[in-house]
């Protein structure tokens, strides 16, 4: 990391404009990079313990290490200043949740889903799992291409997990029972929920309220009715069902997903 003087200079080069998103892992701002007069996204993380400081360093490593991939958000640099860590990234206009309706057509969503899978494959090929795949962590650029972001939960396949990570509706069932699970397979489950949601506009769990859905998630109750009601290809439905196997050993790898007819089209 930079020296105190360098980090102060880096912070002074940024003018925070507005808050874009706030969560457990930090706050994301739209900012101006004053020397270049360009807009960037800045993630600010409170480093209030040795563990959060260590996670910040890991996130910086993963973010910058994969940012050259065309389907991963570009990370420009990172630094610490006083009690905070900062990650400066490219600013993209919308996430997949905000543009959800644009990808309800199966042909459109096939492309964006394939792009997300390619990003995940790059991670898995380097023995890293993302562990928080969801629409909010998939940004869409001006060309309509998907870019995976937020590596705050990412861990190495063999790395110990000190606490639960991920987002409740997208977490694999085994992640609630133990911290010693197959992280790559957990990513596949999250991708399966993502694909189901893109295809149907619903979660693959019974319930009409958020409380009912959360109860179904925690009881590991799946409901594929919405998938059967919608007029989607048998190929899409088959892939979802393969990815949402309760037994993690029965789920396909990310490389098998990319070779599946739903994804393997160019």
Automatic annotation (TrEMBL):
Its EC number is 2.7.12.2. Residues 14-263 form the Protein kinase domain. It catalyses: L-seryl-[protein] + ATP = O-phospho-L-seryl-[protein] + ADP + H(+); L-threonyl-[protein] + ATP = O-phospho-L-threonyl-[protein] + ADP + H(+); L-tyrosyl-[protein] + ATP = O-phospho-L-tyrosyl-[protein] + ADP + H(+). Pfam families: Pkinase. It is an enzyme of class 2 (transferase). It comes from Vannella robusta. Belongs to the protein kinase superfamily. STE Ser/Thr protein kinase family. MAP kinase kinase subfamily. Keywords: ATP-binding, Kinase, Nucleotide-binding, Transferase. InterPro entries: Kinase-like_dom_sf, Prot_kinase_dom, Ser/Thr_kinase_AS. PANTHER family: DUAL SPECIFICITY MITOGEN-ACTIVATED PROTEIN KINASE KINASE 5 (PTHR48013:SF9), DUAL SPECIFICITY MITOGEN-ACTIVATED PROTEIN KINASE KINASE 5-RELATED (PTHR48013). This is mitogen-activated protein kinase kinase. GO terms for molecular function: ATP binding; MAP kinase kinase activity. The lineage of its organism: Eukaryota, Amoebozoa, Discosea, Flabellinia, Vannellidae. Coiled coil: none annotated.
């Amino acid at each position: 990391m930079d020296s105190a003087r360098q980090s102060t200079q880096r912070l002074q080069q940024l003018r925070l404009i507005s808050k874009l998103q706030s969560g457990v892992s930090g706050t994301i701002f739209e900012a101006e990079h004053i020397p270049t007069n360009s807009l960037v996204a800045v993630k600010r993380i409170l480093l209030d313990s040795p563990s959060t400081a260590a996670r910040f360093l890991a996130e910086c490593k993963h973010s910058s290490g994969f940012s050259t991939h065309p389907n991963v958000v570009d990370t420009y640099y990172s630094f610490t200043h006083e009690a905070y860590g900062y990650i400066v990234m490219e600013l993209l206009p919308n996430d997949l949740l905000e543009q959800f309706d644009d990808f309800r057509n199966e042909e459109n969503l096939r492309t964006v889903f394939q792009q997300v899978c390619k990003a995940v494959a790059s991670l898995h090929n380097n023995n890293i799992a993302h562990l928080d795949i969801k629409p909010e962590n998939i940004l869409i650029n001006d060309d309509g291409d998907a870019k995976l972001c937020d590596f705050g939960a990412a861990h190495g396949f063999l790395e110990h997990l000190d606490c639960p990570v991920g987002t409740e509706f997208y977490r694999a069932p085994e992640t609630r029972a133990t911290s010693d699970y197959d992280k790559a397979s957990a990513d596949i489950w999250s991708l399966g929920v993502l694909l189901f949601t893109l295809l149907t506009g619903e979660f693959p769990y019974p319930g009409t309220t958020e409380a009912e859905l959360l109860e179904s998630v925690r009881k590991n109750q799946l409901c594929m009715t919405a998938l059967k009601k919608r007029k989607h290809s048998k190929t899409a439905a088959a892939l979802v069902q393969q990815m949402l196997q309760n037994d993690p050993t029965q789920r396909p790898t990310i490389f098998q997903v990319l070779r599946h007819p739903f994804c393997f089209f160019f």
